[in-house]
Each structure stands twice: as C-alpha cells, then as structure tokens.
Amino acid sequence: MMPQVTTLSNKERTKLPHQEMPLRPAESRVLNFDEVPVGYSNDQALSESLRCLHCKKPACVGACPVGIDIPGFIRLIEEGDPAAAAKKIRETNFLPAVCGRVCPQDKQCQAVCVVGRKNIPVGIGNLERYAADYERTNGTLEIPVIQEPTGKRVAIIGSGPAGLSAAYELTIRGHEVVVFEASHRAGGVLVYGIPRFRLPLRIIDEDVRFLTRLGVRFVYNMVIGKVLTLEDLLHQEGFDAVMIGTGAGLPRMLNVPGSNANGVYSANEYLTRIYLMEANHFPKYSTPVSSGKKVAVIGAGNTAMDVLRTAKRLGAEPTCYYRRSHDEAPARSEELKHAEQEAIGWRWLSNPVEFIVDENNFVKQIKCERMELSEPDETGRRKPLPTGNFFVEDCDTVVMSLGCSVNPIIPSTDAEIRTNKWGVITVDSNTCQTSKKGVFAAGDAITGGSTVILAMGQAKKAAAAMHEYLVGKPVSASFEVLNGVPATVS
Amino acid sequence: MTDRVNQILQKFDAHIVESVTQTLDKVKALTDLTQDEKLDLAKNLCELFFHAHHTSSTLMPKLAVTTGKRIAKFGPEMIPFLIDEVMEADGESAVYFGKALSRFGVRGLDYTLARLNDCKDQDHDLINLMQVLSYFKIPETANAIPTILAQAQHPNHQVTAMALYTVGRLTQKLQTSAFSESTRSAMFDHIFRFLSGVQGLVRKNAARTLGKMLRRGLLSHENEKKLYNAFLSITGRDEHHNWDRAFIVRREAEDFLPYFHAETAPVKLYTQSFKILSKRLLCTNTYHFTIDAPLIARKIEAGQFLIVRPHIFSERIPLSVCGWNREKGSVSIIVSAVGKTTTEINTMGVGDAFQDVVGPLGERSIIPADAGTCVVIGGGYGTGAIIPTAKDLKALGCKVIGIVGARSEDSLIMIPELKQACDEVVVTTNDGSQGIKGFVTDALREVLHRENVTYVLAVGPVPMMKAVSEMTRPANITTYVSLNAIMVDGTGMCGACRVTVGGETKFACFHGPDFDGHKVDFENLMKRQKMFVKEEKLAFERMK
Ligand SMILES: Cc1cc2nc3c(=O)[nH]c(=O)nc-3n(C[C@H](O)[C@H](O)[C@H](O)COP(=O)(O)OP(=O)(O)OC[C@H]3O[C@@H](n4cnc5c(N)ncnc54)[C@H](O)[C@@H]3O)c2cc1C
Ligand SMILES: Cc1cc2nc3c(=O)[nH]c(=O)nc-3n(C[C@H](O)[C@H](O)[C@H](O)COP(=O)(O)OP(=O)(O)OC[C@H]3O[C@@H](n4cnc5c(N)ncnc54)[C@H](O)[C@@H]3O)c2cc1C
Ligand code: SF4
Ligand code: FES
User: Fold this and answer.
1) What confidence score (pLDDT) does residue B266 get?
2) Which of B269, B321, B338, B493 best tests the A interface by mutation, with the highest count of A CBs <10 A?
C-alpha cells in the first residue's frame, strides 16, 4: 500500500476534534468483568492520529520513561499502517498492549503534549493500544532479530513487567534466560492486581507466550531465597548474572483497632483472591472471598480504584475513604473518572481510626475522623489535619489499599544485598546493579512501588548493564544510591 | 429420486442448524433404503461438509461430524463415493470426509490407501487423501505409515509437509503398541532427514512429528539423543549457535525440549513432577503422602511448610512437612480432611500429581542454643509436623520427650515414627482408650513436674496450643507454637495470615509459622480462622 501523504497544516490539525475512547456504559459494565474501554475504531484512530503536530523536538518523547518514538508511530497510523506503528513502539517498549491500557499518560507524555496547552492532548495511550491490538488481532507480530547466542545464562526473579522486559532485552541480545516466578502464573501485578476489566488476561498471556517462543523459560512455584538462593543461582546453578524483579509485594496495613478483624483485607489479598484464584467463580474455583454488601475501601490510588470497581462487580456497594480530598487522589485520572461513573460512594477528607467489630470479630462499622487540608506548604502540598469530628458508618468488608513495602525474602537470605531503611533494595543509579556483584534489580523492588512503565524502563537499563557485564565490559564500579525516597503512601 | 427422499431433501438447507438437525432425524427414521436413495442422501448431506467451517455457529462443525456418522451407517458402498468427493474438497472440508471415512475401519483404510497409490501426480488429491488417513484410529493404520512416508519424497513440498503432518497425527492418535520396533526406527530415520529440508514448513512438520514420537515414548535412547542434539542446534543452543532461520521451526523444537529425559538433556529445567510417590492411611480421613519435589527436598528444614494447589480449580492451602528424603528428592505430608480441598487431596492416589507445590516456606523452627530437656507436643497432623524438630533437638544432644493427644486410640497417628525421634513418648487420649485419659496438658503437667524442661514446642489445634502456652507461662519456659492461620500465597504478599503476637501484627507465613506462645493472641487467631466458615461449608456441600 502506498502511504498516503497527508498534507494537513498544523492549524488544520489543531482544529480536528479529539476522539474520546469509547466506553461500555456504566450501568451494564458493572455487571461483569469485561473490558471497559472498547478501543478506537480504525476511523477514530486515523482521526486522532491526524491531531499530532509532529513537533521537531517532541516533548512527549522526553516524558516517556522508555522514550517511545511517539510522533513516529503516530505517523505510521496516519499512513494507514498500524502494524508498522506497533513495530515501531516495540523498538522501545515490549508490552505496548499493556502500557496502552495502564500507563498514566495523563502524568507523562500527554501531560506535556503541545496540543494539550490549548486543547485536549493527543490520545497517545489510546493510539498505542490501537496499534498493539491491531498487531495482536491481525497476527502481524514479527519475531525480532536475535543476536548470536553468547553462551551466558541469566536468571530473572519475578515475572512482573520488570522481569518480562528484562527477559526480552536479554534474550534478543543472545543470552539464555530463565525466569523464576513464585506464583503459578506469569505477569506479577498484571495478573494478580490489575483487574480484567482494565487488562484482559489474554493480553498478558500472549506476551508471555511470545517470550517463550523466543526461548525464554519460565519456572513457576519457585520462591527465590527459599528454594534456591542468589548464591545457589550464581554458584551452583551456573547463572552468570541475576536480575531481581520481585516487585513490592508486602501490603501495608493501618495500625488501628480492628485492623485484624474478619472481613478486613489488604488490597493485595482481595485482588489476588479474585484475579489470581478466581474467587468470583466460587465455588467452581474453591478460593472464597467474603465480599459483603457494603465494602469500605481505604485509600484513593490506582489500587483503591481497582478494588472499588471490583467490589461493584461483585454486587456490593463500595465506598472510598480517603484522608485527603478528591484533587489529591493519586489514582490515574482516567481510573478515577471511570470509578466515578460507576456509582461508588466517596468520603473525602475521612481518616479511618477504628474498625468496629461484632462479637465474632467481623467488622460491622468504620469510624473515621473528618480531616481538613492545611494551607499549601513550601512544596505546594496540602497536608490533611485532624478536626476532632468523627463519624461512623456501616460496612461488612474493609479493603486497605495503602501501598506496599518491599518483600524482604530475598534481602533477608543474602547478606550482600543492601536495602535502605524502608526495605527497598539499593542499586547503582546508572546500572541498576545491587551491592552484590552480578546481581541487578529493577521495578518496584528498587522503588517501593511505581508504575508498569517505570519498572520496564529500569529493567531495560538493568538489562543493558547486564549485557555489558556478561560480555565482559566493566560495569561502573561506583556505588551510588539511586533510591533514597520511600514510596508514597496514598 | 424417490418421493420420500425428495421430500426430505427439499427442506434441507445446509446453512441452517435447525434444518440440518431435522433432516438428520428424518434420515435416521428411514428404513430399507435402496442403493440409489442412499447415494442421493449422501450427495446432498455432505454438502454440509463444505459449509460447516464458514458459519459462525459453533454447532455446525459438530453437526457435520454427526452427518458423517449417519452417512457411514449407510454401509461400505459409500466409500467410493466419499473418496470421489474428497478429491474436490478443500483442506477444511476434507476433515469431515476423513472423519466419516475413518468410521469404515479397515475397509475404509484399504480403499483410501489404494487410491493414494493410484493418484501419482495429482498433488491436491494426494494431500486430501493423506489428510483422510490421519483420522483413522485403528491400529492397522500404523501399517500405512511406510506408504505415507513414501509420499514424502514427492517433489512438491506441500505434499511432503502433509505426509509428515499425517504421520505426526497418527503418532499422537494410535496406541503406542501399534508401532513395532522396526516401524519406530524406520519412521525416525526417514523423518529425521527432513529436519534439514529446504522448506521451513517441511522442517517444522518433521520437528513436530519427531517431537510427538518423543513425547509418546517411541524413540530409542540413541535416537532420542540424536533428536536432542538436532533440537539444540535448531534452537541455537549447541556450540555452533546457528539456529534455524525459520521461527516456526524453532518454536516446535523449543516446545518439545522439556520432554527429553533427564539423562539425555543436560539443560537443567527445574521441573519437579509433584507426583504422589506413596499414600498411606493413618486414621479415618487422614493420609500420609510422599511427593516428588527434589528442589524442595534439597532445602526444607524442620518447621517449614508447603503451599499446595491440587488442581487448577483449587485453593492454595498450607501443609506442614513431616519428613523428607534429600537423596530421593521427596517430601512427606499428612493431610486430614476437614473441608473441600483437603478432601480432594485425600482422593488422589499414587501417580497423580499436584498442580502446584511451593516451598519451603516460613522460617525453620527455632531451637534452643544449648542442649536441655525439650518437650514436643502434637495433635492431629501436628504429631507428624513435630518429628523433624524432634530430630533436630536430638541431634543437638537434648533429651526429647514427645507428648501426643488424640480423641481416642483410633485417631492416634505417627506414633512409631515419633518414638524413633524422641527419647520418650507420652500418649494421651480423651476417652482413655490408650495412655493417659485426658488432654496433652495432663501429660505436660506431669512431665514439667518431674523434669527440668527448658523448651516446649506445640503443633496442633489452636485450643491445645493455647492451653500448653498457659501452662508453661508461670515458669516462663520457652514455648513455641506453630500458627495455622488462613493463607493464600505464603510469601508475605497478601496479609491473609496476619496474627497478633506481642501486640504487633505479624504475617504467619514468613515471620513464622512458629511464634512465642506466651505472646500470641490466640483468641484473634481462632476468630480469624472462622472468616470463611459460611463459604467453606457451601463449597464442601456443593462438592458432594
Ligand atoms: C492493583 C494495582 C493496580 C495498578 N495499576 C497500575 C496502573 O494502572 N498503571 C501503572 O502503571 N501501574 C499500576 N500499578 C503498579 C504496577 O503494577 C507496578 O508498578 C508494576 O507491576 C511493578 O512491576 P514489577 O515487575 O517490579 O513487580 P510485580 O509486578 O509486582 O511482579 C513481581 C513478581 O515477582 C514475583 N516474586 C516476588 N518475590 C519473589 C521471589 N522471592 N521469588 C520469585 N518470584 C518472586 C511475584 O510473584 C510477582 O509475580 C498497579 C499496582 C497494583 C497493585
Ligand atoms: C502453617 C500451616 C500448616 C498446616 N499444616 C497442615 C498439615 O500438615 N496437615 C493438614 O491436614 N492441615 C494443615 N494445615 C491446615 C490446612 O491448611 C487446612 O486444614 C486447609 O487449608 C483446609 O482447607 P479445606 O479446603 O480442606 O477446608 P475448608 O473447609 O476450606 O477450611 C476448614 C478450616 O481450615 C482453615 N483453612 C481454610 N482455608 C485455609 C487456608 N487457605 N489456609 C490455612 N487454613 C485454612 C480454616 O480455619 C477453615 O475453617 C496447616 C495450616 C497452616 C497455616
Ligand atoms: S507532543 Fe503531542 S503533538 Fe507533539 S509530537 Fe508528541 S504527541 Fe505529537
Ligand atoms: S499468606 Fe499471604 S501474606 Fe502470608
């Protein structure tokens, strides 16, 4: 097909209307776990692609953690070749179908898009998803060029976004890669956390299958640190390097009376029971989740939105309790918007202080203190301050969604792995190498919790450094700590 | 055409599910069909074969198979007709002709083979006939393999690929006993050469067929080695690092690599079969299993546990380990059926495999720094779970006294094994049918009285662990209990297993499972264990 050269001027382009992502209607989508955004049609994608101005120095690319050639791939969509667009994205991002769906574009590329100064920014995420979906449904995905085998073996611990992208990067550089996963499924948070109505399972399964085709081997049920230690991997199993991509899987809980009552879950437990263990199909699947009628969700991050919307789909009336106000909610704006459409209760400026239980230790009420916001401090942040006013509401399930700390299993079984005081694994900022030679780390394990794309960005950096390490180039010896900051608590 | 047939066929529309089902019913009701009637019906009905794949109905393909069955019932006279038709067919409709023809057994097979030998140069016919052959399931089909493989020499690579494909399907379908030793090695030698064919499709089908032979155990040790090296080379894993250009070929080889036997394949795959090696009834509803899990067996220590998921629909449940064999690579567990998952496990037998087994999880039991007199107390599965720790204590030079509690004599388990690990074992039963009548605390009181006990470990029901901890509290004797909180992942990821110890929240799965019994909030644990009682009851009832 001859590419059609579009000759729209920038002025004409800015006049084109933004294409909204079509969504399933709120009333019917809460009845099941099917995906909410249905994806651009070909026409919509084409129209939206025409809105890009193809800036000489595109700000969006600079704001993308992996530096996708955004105007480049949009141009290919404009030219009617989404398969090539997907290929272009894949040069830098190996999980386009995932990122197109879950990346916080409103805080990254789309936040700086020049079109967004006066108008709605280009729907970069939606276009990314469109290209990736086109590639998947039309089977245009090509096998990348894989370098000559180097004879080096790499172990990757954890199969979340960090682990998967490192596996990809190292495989195409010719190394033999084995991924060790503690759970019985690959994907990390993508399978046990992010709901199916945002990210259908088949997408991640296909990405995993693609990796196995490239020769990556996945071994499940392997808790590294327990069944094999880092030392075992390096000295007994013959791996030349190891990458830790174990995420931040240790849920934080509120330490208030009633926190250990029955019916109080961490978001991890709630979502794992449902998405990894399929408790929504209980009793066909044996794992239960006693999600009641009134579900109180503490926090207002992405995870909290996921829990609220999941509870809604299980037939409950979920309510969100957050100690700051709507504007400070850390969730991706799109998720917040979608949740708001789904008839969910909101209690802003409400700080839970107690979960009141019945005689059998089941929660029956939540007690909150009303908060108010301080004047902005020098960082511009407004702090929630207690007011001394309390209120009590009924609930039969509580889900705490307060973020996670890093799981200590690996650091605690290897003295050479250093962590900061929050348990986050410290790494060299240039190479992602940990304090142990030959062991690298990326993802939530070194940040304490961030995003899919940041995890992937770090994994790419780690993979590049690992490659140099493996082929014998010196890896920067300085040990300069990248991560001194704790993860934000929502 | 006779009237009755005409009437039926006029209403027949191969595109409409209802019409097809009705027609089939009517045809079924007909008796004494003449030769011509049969042919008329067959000619019209098999029109369905050409459509079945092009409708959106998922029922159509099934109906096409039923139609084939019906035509086959008309008798072997239909064979020549069907074979003639198949020559006209495309790849997808040939499937239904194949399925229909395979119902004629040896006669169908012989006729198809005869035709195959006749049509030398009609490539399309050859391909279709071979596809038909791939649907025969009778053992005699194995004898046709040399004939099919002879076609593989054909200059058209599509024919070659189909010949290899057909042999692959037969390898998968036929009983392994249908393949004699000589057939096996002839097949291997013949197909192996095609691994270096020019066309990717040919190499792929050759790799797939050989892979299937491997998987069905049809390869001699020598040939398996040969194939292994070939697959290593295809996937670029040998010393030349020249892998097959075609991705489809690499993928085939890649998929079969895990099926090579350990002796052949030096690549470590970290596979644990999780197969049940032995099963033994201990008492009503309680079994002792040993499971193949060499990696876990290499690392496990006293006090640690496993998380098992018997099949893909099950829950993940924690189970303690009561022994292991590091050389043989096995671990032992005791399962008492209390609900759905444990009952399901107890119906599994030797040779069955668990879907997932994760371990070793939790910290090993804490044992005292210096030798002294130690008491290990078990109830239920705990009687087994304390054995590894008892052995450790013994190795440290301690005097180890075991105390076991059970409802009655018939529910006592693992006593001989425990006796081997301890210096002395005191048995208590609630009904007095063996040993001391009463509870473990009655025995413990007596032991504390006569011995200078420095360490106590209790594993079993929560009320028992609580009572033990209360008894040792006044004298401040170091007491550990193994907390059986509800768990999901067992690695600290979910927080389901939260327990309160010394006023702090701990995760039983990775801070424990053993904790200082004097600090544990047993009330909270007991209540939390009842979190899902309603759901558990429902699951258990539905299961029956
Ligand atoms: C509910 C929820 C919603 C989210 N929504 C978004 C979103 O919309 N957009 C976004 O960008 N980000 C989102 N995030 C954050 C994002 O998912 C994470 O930042 C990202 O998944 C981190 O990737 P990772 O590879 O570092 O770790 P993970 O995805 O956590 O994967 C770690 C893997 O390592 C395994 N593992 C852990 N310990 C071991 C061990 N000892 N041995 C072997 N394997 C081990 C785990 O089982 C897991 O599979 C969300 C997070 C959650 C919880
Ligand atoms: C560290 C530890 C070691 C254990 N060791 C053994 C052992 O060696 N042998 C043995 O027979 N049992 C053992 N158990 C108990 C065993 O895990 C439960 O009996 C089992 O999970 C019950 O599952 P079910 O589906 O059969 O019954 P259900 O009807 O689902 O539950 C019956 C009761 O078992 C408990 N239970 C249910 N689900 C879980 C779960 N996911 N995790 C923990 N407890 C649960 C609850 O208190 C529940 O009321 C152990 C538990 C723990 C925590
Ligand atoms: S900043 Fe916006 S307009 Fe400019 S290249 Fe990026 S997407 Fe296009
Ligand atoms: S079982 Fe999930 S944290 Fe312990």
Assistant:
1) 53
2) B493
